Amino acid sequence: MTVERIVVIGAGTMGHGIAQAAAVSGYQVTLTDVDPAALERGKQAIEKSTDKLAKKGIIDQNQQEAAAGIVIAEDMAAAGDAHLVIEAATENPEIKLALFKELDRVASKDTVLATNTSSISITRIAGATSRPDRVIGMHFFNPVALMTLLEVIRGLETSDTARDLAFEVGRQMGKEPVEVKDSPGFIANRILIPMINEAIFALQEGLGSAEDIDTIMKLGMSHPLGPLALADLIGLDVVLHIVEVLHRDFGDDKYRPARLLRQMVDADHLGRKTGKGFYQYN
Ligand SMILES: NC(=O)c1ccc[n+]([C@@H]2O[C@H](COP(=O)([O-])OP(=O)(O)OC[C@H]3O[C@@H](n4cnc5c(N)ncnc54)[C@H](O)[C@@H]3O)[C@@H](O)[C@H]2O)c1
Predict the structure, then answer these.
(1) What's the topology of domain 5-181?
(2) Tens digit of pLDDT per residue, the chain (282 long)?
(3) Which of 13, 112, 129, 234 has its CA 20 to 30 A from that of 80?
(4) What are the residue boundaries of the structural domains of the chain, listed by start?
């Protein structure tokens, strides 16, 4: 099947980024969300981002116009004749399972249904549909326009056809797809999130200040960003959620969340999005 039409579900941070990357790569894209305000914000963010990329010469005028041509819709009807649906709605199993049940009903039987989930089992999501062979994980990274990694995750029953399609679309979008087995945190978050959690333990134990810990990891490991600054960027609530998934699903205490991480989430010090995390933001 040649992919021409892609529907993206969820117009938040990831959804609008995926829709934009798909449109500038030549796909006809529809972007949907249950929240009209999120759709409006997504549309504005795409305009702003493509404007910036065009000024830097990263995309040309045709690509900018293609992104402006993304169809905005409040329902999922467009999934009816899409070749690929990429779901990037809120990270909540109940929302995702209900969405995939509904997508399975409205999408044509050949449509491949992909999810951008960071932590929910692809096999579990596929189980909500009658087409587990055509359900796959396409885990993009933030910001989608700039990050080239794409983790492609196969559920227990995902077919080679769905895997090949995800690779083809990912490459067309300028990404480097890497196939990963379905396991908590996949590979990127399985390694990244425990490292961030360990950095929070180091801070909690007073081994150094946030700046010291980040400086050590930047200069010693050539990381562009220290783990605590990165946690602020991701959102401490998201970090806590993923570390809890690793702890619960592996049943291994090496993944226990640092107490300081929980306290910061309880205090609503979530990082950049609330203006305060390990650092202060204006
Ligand atoms: N933020 C990241 O850095 C990042 C990175 C990789 C993967 N992800 C994953 O991407 C997904 C989206 O994350 P995000 O950060 O963009 O979240 P977000 O909160 O910015 O956006 C989620 C959007 O989904 C919408 N939504 C909720 N229920 C819906 C429904 N039933 N139908 C349609 N839209 C619905 C919300 O209105 C919201 O606009 C999650 O699964 C997350 O784990 C996030």
Answers:
(1) Rossmann fold (3.40.50)
(2) 899 999 999 999 999 999 999 999 999 999 999 999 999 999 999 999 999 999 999 999 999 999 999 999 998 898 999 999 999 999 999 999 999 999 999 999 999 999 999 989 999 999 999 999 999 999 999 899 999 999 999 999 999 999 999 999 999 999 999 999 999 999 999 999 999 999 999 999 999 999 999 999 999 999 999 999 999 999 999 999 999 999 999 999 999 999 999 999 999 999 998 999 999 998
(3) 13
(4) 5-181, 190-273
What six digits make up the tokens of 258?
Answer: 């640092």
Which residues, in sequence order, are CB contacts of 266 under 8 Å at separation 6+? none
190-273 has the same fold as 5-181? no
Global pTM value: 0.94
The residues annotated as belonging to the active site are 118, 139, 151, 189
Q: Which of 112, 91, 95, 122 is nearest to 13 (CA)?
A: 91
C-alpha dist (Å) from residue 85 to 23, 32, 65, 225: 14, 11, 22, 33
Q: Which of 7, 8, 13, 122 to mutate to test the pocket of ligand 1 (most atoms within 8 A of CB)?
A: 13
**Is residue 227 within 6 Å of ligand 1 at its C-beta?**
no
CA–CA dist 72, 176 (Å, integer): 28
Name the CATH architecture for the domain at 190-273.
Orthogonal Bundle (1.10)
Residues paired with residue 29 on neighbouring β-strands, in sequence order: 6
In 35-83, which ranges are E strands? Answer: 71-73
